[in-house]
Every structure is written in structure tokens, then in C-alpha cells.
Amino acid sequence: MTTTRRPLRLTAAAVAAAVVIGAGAYTLTADSSSNASATASTTSMTATTEAPSEQSVQQLLDDWAQQGAGGVSVALAGADDELTVAAAGSAGAGGGTIEPDAEFRVGSLSKTFVAVMLLQLVSDGTIGLDDPVVTHAPELTIADGVTVRQLLAHRSGLPEHTDGELGPAVLADLGRTWTPGDVLDLVDDQPRDFPAGEQFVYSNTNYIVAGLLLEEVTGSSLADNLRTQITEPLGLMSTYFAPDDARRPIEGFSASVPAGGTNGESYRAIETAAGAAGALVSTAPDLAVFIRALAHGDLLDDATYAEMTSGLPGDGHTLGVFPSDPPSTTGIAHNGDIPGFTAYMQYDPATEDLFVLLLSDDSRSPETLGNALLETLGMT
Question: pTM score, two decimals?
């Protein structure tokens, strides 16, 4: 375990929200209707308490990790801004133990990062939130009639590309490299689910388009944008879009891939098909720094951040984030999963309560770990 100063308090609801995230955000068989909210409320408790000892948290994680494959990394913080990071479990079939700074695939947490990068272009006047996407990227005809705001808020009506053909096609050739164009071709001839702006329906397709829009407007790749706009300014040394030839995350375990582990067969098709919608790799400490920086104005100006969080605590109008649990006008969150991995991050700048949870075995229930955490915290 590593600790920045000392352990901290944490709201029970934040823990509960983080560990009951059964609705996946980027899977081979995504149920997009289950993503209408990034949180699952299991408690209305709002009281805070002192965090347990380092030993009790570490023992809990060790016990949980020993009961199955893979492992876990968490970051906790509270009102005095201190950050505690703990980890346990196997880093994969090749051996090794998960360290607090282990690199996990984080699925749809990618979307928050992509939204921030596009909103930075809004902030500097390069694009407008209510500009049509095709004004800046005429070749993205799939988004004709859709604005930047509608894209980021999942109000475009673009059909979900992970429903239908994608899963079988990915699993049929795990070594294939998918381009964003390949992914969009799967739904290019499908009708819109609804007219743009009329409803909120979570669709990964929105963020495949958003990644292409970002690249078109900036003239730089998704990876280069991430590096120059977020990771270098914040000093995030272990956050990147996969595949990256120079590094790779820890192994994840999943029944949805033929070998049962993400390093057993090529993961290239899965990660390249996920792209801007779900191919991010990060660590619990990096995600803690990122979500705090976002909420405290280090990445967006006040006016643009207000647009990003407009409508909180409700769903349906926020851009790249969702309400925290318990819902408030200030708390932000996002969840994600991709074969082998489950991820969640939540932060409320009003209370300073922060929770990051990363798992590398998608066959195990996050709720089980959550209940144990709540018991250890004395909040059951």
C-alpha cells in the first residue's frame, strides 16, 4: 500500500456506488439501455467517518484477491485531501503482484477524457458546443444533423455499434486491427434510434465519432491529444490509449475471451474496436489526480466545466460525466468495463470525497467487494 500523507474518511454512498456498477459501458455484448446512469444507488447514507487503518483495507483487498483470479486497486480520499492507494492480487498468468500503480484497462472512463479534450476546443473557441459535427468534420456524415453537445451527452440518436455484429466479428479474429471507420461501418446504414436531441440513450458510437472529430479538428492523433492536453500537463505517467507499442497493462480475466485471460490471445481486435469509446489504460492514482483536476478547474475554464456538468444531479444533459452517488449538483462519476476489467471513478469537490476502483476480473461481482468495504468502514 502507498499513502500520500494519511488515510481519510469516505462516504458510504460513494463506496456503494463504486462497487455496484453492474452496468458495463464497453463490452462485446453491451446493453446500452443499462447505461442510462453511470451509478447504481444502494444506500442513502451521507454521513462520513474516519477511514480504517491501512492494515484493515489491505487485508480486505488481499482476502478478496485470494478468492479468485486477477486483482484490485483502489484510491480513497476525503475532506482533508489526502489520498490512500491500495492494491492486491495477481498481475496475470506470467506472475507478479498488482502494485498500487498497476496499469488497468478502464473501458468507458475513456469517454470522460475524450469529452474533456473536445471541451478544451470549445473553451478556446475552436469549436462550439452547438455546432453541427459535420461543420468541423464533413466526412463524418453518420453524424449529419448532430451537434457536438448532443454527441457528448448521448443525445444524438446514433445506434449502438456494440449491439449485433461487432462481438462475433471481434472474436472471430482477435488479431485484427479495427479502425474507427470499420466500427462505424457496422451502423452506417442503420436508422437513427431517435431524432437528435430528443432523448438520452447511452451509445458508444457517440464517442467513436467524438474521437474522430477531435483528430480532424486538431490534426493530431487521439494518443497525441491525450498526451499534450491531459497527461503531460497533469503528470500522469501511466495513462494512455491502447495499443501502445512501448507498454501494456496488466492481464485481465474474463469468460468472454477464448483463453479466459486478456494476454492469452491477442487483445488487438478488442482494444482497437473500443478506440476512443473504451481503450484507455490508467492507474488508480492517475485517475484520482485526473478527476480532481477536472473538478477544480485545472483542465477546463469555469464556464465550460459548467456546461459539462449542466443538469446535475440528473442524467441526460451532462457531457462525459454522470451524477455521483448520492446525487448532488457537484459530484461527478463514470464507470467502465471492457473484457477482463471493471472500473469506476467518483469525486465530489464539495465534500472532497473520492473513490477509484479498478478490477482485473470481470467474472466477479464488484458488489461483494463493496459490501466488505462498507463493513470494514463501519457503515453497514
Answer: 0.88
